[in-house]
Amino acid sequence: WFEDGNIVLITERTAFCVHKAQLARQSEVFAGMFTITQPTVSEISTFEGRDVVHVHDPVEDLKNVLTALYDGVDFKSHHLDDFLHLAGIARLSTKYMIHQLRQRAIRYLISINPVTHDRYKEWTAEAISRVKSTEDGEPWPYAHPSLIIRLATDINADYLLPCAFYRLTVAQPKHNFESYIGTGYRTLLSSQEMARYVILDEHMRVSLLSFVRGLSDNRDTFLSKECESLKGDNCCKAFDKVQEYAMTTIFPKGPLRGPDGTIRKVIDFLRDKCKPTACSACTRLFIASAEESRRAIWDQIPGYLGLPGWAKLIPEEYKCVKM
């Protein structure tokens, strides 16, 4: 509440006294509102001589947006409240066309919900390195994918959907749809969103099975021309061990049933644990082939959700975001 403010915003029985110039400078909606021909004095709602505008926004979200406009904002991800703070700002900056603030919010959203495969690989490593939060009930970044799906829909940011839906398919259904029902840690998906989830989940299962079967079917393609093993026998045996590991150890596990996680585990097994070991040349060729499969799966995700490919889906200003 600024004593020298000249506009009062009221929502949920809470009033904020701020400055028209500050709002108009940052928000196209408020700028347009304040330039409309003024009504007669008898039609103006005032408080202590100041014009009053009634809005219909959550009071905490409006407070956070106004604070960001005056003092700036530093987004972070230490617990669920941080995401809810970010989501509220993203929604209201979209509603009131506060473009710079919306861009900052989206850039941070992309950092915790990647839109590029390279960033997703980094995100996965970061998520694994973080300790699971027992307080919030969610691992880093502490926002369940369903909350991101709802936010992406509210702010017209479809490019946030593929990663969020993919994270749903990687997790166990119980974690998505049974745990924390009726709490702030989840939101219910619409029937259309559920259909998208089911379709993507099936495609990811097929992709995973195809990759694991390919470990045997394409075994010869992993043999480098510079193979150091006699006739490639040791390397072929190593690739057979990798497939056995994938089928018996990784494939049955729900949390790692996603193809991206499986491919990562397969690479780690071949490089660090497999006996017999493949030669360095064949190992490099295998890893390159596996990474190509990993990227190809990522590239297909938007199409399975009925969205355009990544190149068309991501706005230019967000294609190089890395935070």
Q: What's the layout of helices and strands?
A:
Layout: E1 7-11, E2 14-18, H1 20-26, H2 28-35, E3 46-47, E4 50-54, H3 59-71, H4 80-95, H5 99-112, H6 117-129, H7 145-154, H8 161-170, H9 173-177, H10 191-217, H11 233-250, H12 259-272, H13 280-304, H14 310-313
Parallel strand pairs: 1-4
Antiparallel strand pairs: 1-2, 3-4
Helix pairs in contact: 1-2, 3-4, 4-5, 7-8, 8-10, 10-11, 10-12, 10-13, 11-12, 12-13
**Main sheet: strand order:** 2-1-4-3
- How many whole angstroms does the radius of gyration measure? 25 Å
Number of helices: 14
The second-level CATH architecture of the largest domain is 2-Layer Sandwich
Mean pLDDT: 87
Classify the helix fraction into a percent range: 55-70%
List the secondary-structure elements in sequence, H or E. EEHHEEHHHHHHHHHHHH
Q: CATH first level of the largest domain: which class?
A: Alpha Beta
Proportion of beta-strand residues? 5-15%
CATH fold assignment of the largest domain:
Potassium Channel Kv1.1, Chain A
Count of discrete domains: 3
Biggest sheet, in brief?
Answer: 4 strands, mixed
The gross shape turns out to be elongated
Number of E strands: 4
Gap between N and C termini: 34 Å
Are there runs of 5+ residues with pLDDT below 50, and where?
none
The helix-and-strand class reads: mainly alpha
| Annotated CATH homologous superfamily of the largest domain | Potassium Channel Kv1.1, Chain A
For this entry, what is the oligomeric state of its chains?
single chain
InterPro entries: BTB/POZ_dom, SKP1/BTB/POZ_sf
Protein name: BTB domain-containing protein
Domain BTB: 5-72
